[in-house]
Amino acid sequence: xxxxxxxxxxxxxxxxxxxxxxxxxxxxxxxxxxxxxxxxxxxxxxxxxxxxxxxxxxxxxxxxxxxxxxxxxxxxxxxxxxxxxxxxxxxxxxxxxxxxxxxxxxxxxxxxxxxxxxxxxxxxxxxxxxxxxxxxxxxxxxxxxxxxxxxxxxxxxxxxxxxxxxxxxxxxxxxxxxxxxxxxxxxxxxxxxxxxxxxxxxxxxxxxxxxx
Amino acid sequence: xxxxxxxxxxxxxxxxxxxxxxxxxxxxxxxxxxxxxxxxxxxxxxxxxxxxxxxxxxxxxxxxxxxxxxxxxxxxxxxxxxxxxxxxxxxxxxxxxxxxxxxxxxxxxxxxxxxxxxxxxxxxxxxxxxxxxxxxxxxxxxxxxxxxxxxxxxxxxxxxxxxxxxxxxxxxxxxxxxxxxxxxxxxxxxxxxxxxxxxxxxxxxxxxxxxx
DNA sequence: GTCTATATGCGGATAGAC
DNA sequence: GTCTATCCGCATATAGAC
Lengths: 212, 212
What we know:
Two copies of one chain form a homodimer.
Chain A: H1 2-20, H2 27-34, H3 39-44, H4 48-78, H5 85-99, H6 109-120, H7 123-131, H8 134-147, H9 153-180, H10 188-203
Helix pairs in contact in A: 1-2, 1-4, 1-6, 4-5, 4-8, 5-10, 6-9, 9-10
The structure holds a DNA duplex (18 and 18 nucleotides).
């Protein structure tokens, strides 16, 4: 039953962290929801913070692996030439959405949690998590610079930030908005397509120096 | 000294909520930083949550007033015709950045806090805050539909969400990124211009049904 | 209005029985 | 591996002196 207990804790923690945030979620909330003993978290994971890391890595590792695989394929197909910016944006965003494709109010916890992480976790813990993204960010920004040579490096950094912001906010609030606003109803993959169109257009927008 | 105490609490709370988040900040942290007595918060504001609302409203009210004023001017100038989407995006985003134009690591608390609110505060409290935005959102989305008639209502909702995501994430993390990455150095008003270019391009991106 | 002292409860973590 | 019982600190909030 050991493995099952661990997974039940991970599932409950993922959902509760996503819904209420990390500091606002107690171990008692988690162990009650998972229907396991209070002491089990510290037995299996060591601490609340280590539990958070385990929850995140369960998904970030395969997502980032998939991102790099897609980028490899695009660059191989381009044979040294630039890749379409929209293809790069797509390769970066798609693995996230595929991770949890049945995106309903009660079934998109990891996405929502990842959205939260960017704004909620303290700097120190965040630094650990960002380490996992180093390769991904480096390779994608190099590819984008190649395909959008008119962009300066500073512009690239800021536009990348804007893109991650759209993505993260959408993951955090998208499902809630679909619940409260019937007009917003869309399948997750349609929302992904909307997000790709929006961010690809933003990334490729004219730079400040040229005139309209 | 009463008014001064209240303001000192508001200033300290704004900075600490922004840096560490609402649940992770204790009243002790706040009253120590403000150099006032622990009991002063409950005396002046009633509760920790009421203090948060006071901190937010100190800025949201003038910002939203300014947004509507700018929109009034644009619509008056357009005399019933559509307003350029970029002008609408500019009118929506500028008041925020002007609110705290000296944007350095330790001097952009309110922006950062507003970025956090979208992801950190629980649904119930957020609903109260969103009430203040109702008029603003309704009027801006009507104006955008007028100037981008090819967008369906659903697409408009999602693109608005993407825009708010970019804005919110930039406010939360922009200053930290400037500190850790020298290449990202920019004046706040230049970042605002970058954000306007990015989001205006995204809002105006071709819709899904048309071909590239 | 401002302070000290304190009520009361929840938090993470652990000791030790089974 | 799982449980109960408990430690101990910090949280918000308030009572009541000044």
